[in-house]
Amino acid sequence: MMWLRSLLLLLLLLRWWALGKPSPDAGPHGQARVHQGAPLSDAPHDDAHGNFQYDHEAFLGRDVAKEFDQLSPEESQARLGRIVDRMDLAGDKDGWVSLAELRSWIAHTQQRHIRDSVSAAWHTYDTDRDGRVGWEELRNATYGHYEPGEEFHDVENAETYRKMLARDERRFRVADQDGDSMATREELTAFLHPEEFPHMRDIVVAVSEVAEHLLPKPVLADLYSEVPGEEEPAWVQTERQQFRDFRDLNKDGKLDGSEVGYWVLPPSQDQPLVEANHLLHESDTDKLHEKFDRLKKLHQEEKKKLEDKKKSLDDEVNAFKQRKTAAELLQSQGSQAGGSQTLKRDKEKKK
User: Fold this and answer.
1) Cα separation of 172 and 117, whole Å?
2) How far apart are CA 16 and CA 68, in angstroms?
3) Residue 51 in 3-state DSSP?
4) Which of 45, 48, 78, 162 is most solvent-facing, going by the fewest CB within 10 Å?
């Protein structure tokens, strides 16, 4: 009963909070700048230490996961039950949630996040509302308006922002496949989420500098731009470790083209399928089955409450109809009696 295990684990996910990667650094005058596209979650995938936030966001989506964090356990369980029903209805409708259906749901959640982020960006960047996003519109909305040659003359760390601008323009030119400097919604999606588009593979550029203590910098240019005097976030330190252990395959302290490509688009990696298998594997415990029994009982109780409420409303409606009929009957009888008395008085007057 794989769907039970996946459902049960998710009940535990609703009770965990975790700190994910903070919002990327913003341009000096505009909206948050563009970074490499989103994985299933930015939270660490660290079930061994009780951190299920990655699974939580991968299954529900980031925005919905935040909503669940604000719900009571009863409310979150009820909503989760409805989601599981939707997963099966979108598949073979056999009353069970299979691995394929769970994988399809996670993929749907991932794509929904991408669509939502692109829609929000479109509203921000399409300033003239002509149905396209030009490079000038995107640049000005992100970095502010500057005359040619005067970019960032009024801000600190101007050189850092110039590099950020150059990287963003390079990415935009690759995403703009027809070369008209105007992005369609599809092209803007490629700009914001290059990991979803094979033709964007080469746009990620490795940083080959060496940090303090001769440790390699694992932070790629499109993920984080160092600001002098500011402490590195924790997620950047995690990236350093990831770089050393998994990304720098030949251990030369930098990423070459093949290593970058392997990192951006790993061969044959199906993230939703990996996560679906992970959820089913991790949820196989007796304790979680006990939680399902309680959840099932809760749903039955809620269903009975709704049925009782409906019956009560039906009874009230029927009682009202009966009272209305009786009142109309009395009114009719009263009218008839009044008419008879009037006719009798008229006859007596004539005599």
Assistant:
1) 17
2) 11
3) strand
4) 48
Buried b (16+ CB within 10 A) or exposed e, 235-274: bbeebbeebeeebbeeeeebbeeebbbbbbbeeeeebbbe
Tell me the two tokens of residue 305. Answer: 């409450």
Give the span between the Cα atoms of 91 and 101, in whole angstroms. 6
Q: What's the chain's length in residues?
A: 351
Cα within 13 Å of Cα(351), Cβ side:
5
E strand map for the chain: 133-134, 182-183
157: left (phi over 0), alpha (psi -120 to 50) or beta: left
Tokens linked to 312: 């009560």
- d(CA 20, CA 160) in angstroms, rounded, equals 25
pTM of the model: 0.49
Q: What is the pLDDT of residues 123-171, one digit of tens each?
A: 999 999 999 999 999 999 999 888 878 888 888 888 888 888 888 898 8
Say whether 344 sits in a helix, a strand or coil. Answer: helix
Task: Characterize the bridge pairing of strands 182-183 and 133-134.
Answer: antiparallel
- CB of 134 closer than 8 Å to CB of 183: yes
Q: Mention every residue, 6+ apart, whose C-beta is less than 8 A from residue 240.
A: 211, 215, 216, 217, 218, 219
Cβ count near 135 (within 10 Å): 18
**pLDDT of 185 strictly over 90:** yes
Question: What residue ranges do the domains of the chain occupy?
Answer: 2-284, 285-351
Q: Would you give the DSSP letter of residue 242?
A: H
Q: Is 203 left (phi over 0), alpha (psi -120 to 50) or beta?
A: alpha
Residue 205 near residue 174, CB atoms below 8 Å: no
45 contacts 56 by C-beta, under 8 angstroms: no
Structure tokens at 321: 């109809």
Sign of the Cα pseudo-torsion (117, 120, 125, 131, in order): positive
| Structure tokens belonging to residue 220 | 């790629």
DSSP 8-state class, residue 93: -
Angle at 248 between CA 242 and CA 253, to 5 degrees: 110
Give the pLDDT score at 180.
Answer: 95
From CA 98, how far away is CA 104, in angstroms rounded?
A: 10
Phi, psi of 87 (to 5 degrees): -60, -45
